[in-house]
Amino acid sequence: MANLTKANLHSPASQRKPRTDAKRNRERILQVAKEAFTLWGANASMDEIAKESGVGPGTLYRHFPTRDALLEAVYRSEVEKLAAAERKFAETMPAVDALRAWMLLFVDYIAAKHIIAPALNAYVGGASKLYEGSRAQIQGAIDALVKRAIKSGDIRKDIVAFDLLRALIGVSNVASTPEWKQSAKRLVDILIAGSRPVQ
Fold this sequence. Notes:
199 residues, mainly alpha, Tetracycline Repressor, domain 2, 2 domains, 9 helices, disordered N terminus
């Protein structure tokens, strides 16, 4: 396949195809890696991740030269999904439904972060450096959703977006069993109900 790509390098169509394939491969690797890290922790086999992604080890290492690079990319991908989801939900759902859907997705993000956090602590510059950039994206997303829900009258004007995040993060921090995620998702509905205007 590499020879075919080189042979057709001068064709405009073939120049687009590798980029499309590369993007698809990268997304598939990230998806499989997230599942692998969830099941087996940060020491999941890189070779198994490549195999399950349908790519060779060389392709995996071309995208992600080290395990840390893959862990970081999985984390950043989760943050990007949250940011993109805020826009998508805001465009396609009523305000309070968009807020609820995003908060449920945030629980999934917390779960992914817990899995890879120990490995990210060894990240160059420290995990806090990586988290700093993501914090602004996450805060901006929930701020926008809460403002929209307040404007629509679905939730009270005194609701503070960060309080909703803090409650969900709190549940995950005191979790001692894998069931914390189900508890957190139930808490989303409790928080939404408690945020409604008093009748």
